[in-house]
Amino acid sequence: MAGLLTVLMAVVVVTSVMGAIHPPSNVETIDPTTLHLSGEFVESNLGTAQEPDGSLTARLVADQYAFVPNCVKLAVDTPVKFRLTSVDVVHGFLLPTTNVNTMVVPGYVAEVRTRFTRPGIYRMPCNEFCGNGHHGMWTHVVVVPKQQFPALAATERTSCVQQ
Ligand SMILES: [Cu+2]
Fold first, then answer.
1. Residue 43 in contact with residue 57, Cβ under 8 Å?
2. How far is the CA of 31 from the centre of ligand 1 (A)?
3. pLDDT value of residue 92
4. Residues with CB under 5 A from ligand 1 (ion)
5. Neighbours of 6 (CB within 10 A)
6. Which parts of the chain fold into alpha helices (H)?
């Protein structure tokens, strides 16, 4: 019994020390108190952006109780990268029927890559309990046909929030 406990304690200590020395890849930190002031997640930079290689990057900020922007437009059959962060508590970002499912933790940037195979409206619930208004924390991703996307005006491409 004592030997087993010693081994288990050693496993806990060794793995936590190794984890601290070699953090998992893709850990990006960000200051959640200054998101609105400067850097990647300022308001004017949110929504969908087209990269020089033709892929799309969608940036969103989660807060109690909304995703900003609350509607994102993307194209079918195009590499898509979601980048999210939170200003307050832990939220969850999940797109049913896709591989997109991540926690959005304040202080960190969550990045998920996907490719939509069908156009449509993907409803996006916050899937991490974040407080009293959690049940109302819904938004959506609108995926349009690939050839339709470049024809959209710049403001329509960035997000589909009703003005
Ligand atoms: Cu929530």
1. no
2. 20
3. 92
4. 126, 130, 134, 137
5. 10
6. 2-21, 154-158
Model confidence pLDDT, tens digit, residues 114-161 = 999 999 999 888 988 999 999 989 888 999 998 888 888 777 777 777
The rounded distance, in Å, linking the Cα atoms of 48 and 82 is 9
User: What span, in angstroms and rounded, lies between the C-alpha atoms of 22 and 14?
Assistant: 12
Pairing verdict, β 79-86 and 56-63: parallel
Kind of pairing between the strands at 108-115 and 120-125 = unpaired
Cα 64 to ligand 1 centroid, rounded to whole Å: 7
pTM: 0.80
- Backbone torsions φ then ψ of 78, nearest 5 degrees: -135, 140
User: What is the Cα–Cα distance from 68 to 44, expressed in whole angstroms?
Assistant: 11
* Cβ proximity of 77 and 146 under 8 Å: yes
Q: Are 69 and 44 in contact (CB under 8 A)?
A: no
Closest by CA position to 100, among listed 87, 83, 88:
83
Ligand 1 center–CA 139 separation, angstroms: 11
Average pLDDT of the chain is: 88
Render pLDDT for 80-104 as a digit per residue (tens, 0 to 9): 999 999 999 999 999 888 888 999 9
